[in-house]
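Q: What structure does this chain adopt?
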Amino acid sequence: MSKVKYGLIGFGGIAENRVAKEGFACDKARFAPLQKAQLVAATDINQGRRTAAEALGLKWYADADTMLADPEIQAVYIATNNATHVPLAIKALNAGKHVISEKPMATASGDAEKLVALAKEKRLSLAVDHMMIYNAWNVKAEELVKNGALGTVNDSCFHMEFAYGYDPAEAATWRCSKIEEMGGPIGDVASHCFYLAEYIFGKKITKLAAVYLPKIMPIVAEDGAYIKFFFEDGMQSSAKVAFSELRGGLGGTLSNLGYEIYGDKAALRGYGTMFQLSGHKDEPVKIRLELDKFDGTAESVPAGEIRNIYQCLIEHHAQSVLDGKPLDGGDALHNILLCEAAHASARNNGKIMEIAK
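A:
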């Protein structure tokens, strides 16, 4: 079976360990080769990363332009800093390459609209790294909600709250200091809450209201936010995101990244379900789902088949290329609109904002 050949633009630590070693299965001791995709090359503005890339058997390119000029490369995965996602994606699409981009696809909805239009014009597949929908426990949560295990659901809360930015080195990073690059808890992690909520419930968020948390941190970005959002059928939900919450340390932080979903028969609680983890045995915390039934019983819900979330994302994109049915990037544009609306609401005393369709 033919495989789509990818080049990786940006080869920092996360790109090496999550995207290359896990996503493209370059860590052969842990993973079997992908069926539909193969990573064959890498590049980074830091030429010192060449040794690490070649150690994984990847061809090194001096720059992105050289990679994009190579006809062997059919698609690229963009894992650079946020501000460069759009210009690199435009270059790639104009060079005839299919694109996966790290989140966010763009730092402003206007630029995201341009990318979506260009990909459509070129008939190329455009996707963003919304990988948490492939977590086996999140797949199970979607199934339980759809099958009525919780009864009628009327509320839920998704949360990604942790400590980041108290250290001066962290405060200087883009996540804490560059609002224009979607730094801050809303752009960085509320975005995950939005797309995962839409996946689990199978419907779109059409309006929201948000307020910022009290300002206690010496960072440029907001410390956090409480966001109330509403789906197209009127059902409400919420997201709690923050860089200011200590949560006891790493273990408490990771297990706290999850959600609660409330029906009239049961409540479903996810622990560690919203992170970069897939559920592999060598990961630092155990992901779990707990179903609290209102008859007084409770049970731990086992996941189905555990698959690496990055591999699922990449294989899905590669399949779209092989089938000639390109992904349109519309979900990424919608996600950016939600983040922009949350900031607009918070700056206007929690005003309810309608989301452009």
